[in-house]
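Entry type: protein chain
Record version: 2
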Amino acid sequence: MTAALKSAVDRASAGIHTTRRDPLVPGTAPEMRLYLEHIAANATVYRQVLQSNRSSIVAAALRERIEELITSGLDASTALDEDDLPRDVLAAALSGMTIGIITAWLRRDPLPDAAVAARWLWRSLTRPAAPQT
C-alpha cells in the first residue's frame, strides 16, 4: 500500500509548482485544489493513513512529500529572510500545519469540497500572525 499511495501522491502533486492561479480558489495554484480533490476521492485511505497509528510509515512519507513541495516553493521565493527563519524550519512547520488542516478536513462529515479545503489552507498560509499584546 505504501508504494501505491506514494505513486498516487506523486502523480497528484506533479504540477503543484505552477505559477497559474485557480479561478475557483483565488490566489492559489489549481494544483492545490486538484491535489485535495485526489485526497477527497481517496478519503477512506487518507483517513486511515492520517488518523491511525498503524499507518505511521505512510503518514511520514506523505508528510515528507508535502514538506518537499513546500521547500520547493520556498526555494522559488525571494521573500524569505533565512536569518530570521531557516527554510527547512519553515517548511517543517508549514507541512505540519498542512497535514493538520487536511486531517481536520477529512474528519468532517459530510466532507466539504476540495475548493473549501484549499481556501482553508491558503488562508492559513497567508494569514498574518496575530498581533502580540
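Comment: The chain has a mean pLDDT of 79.
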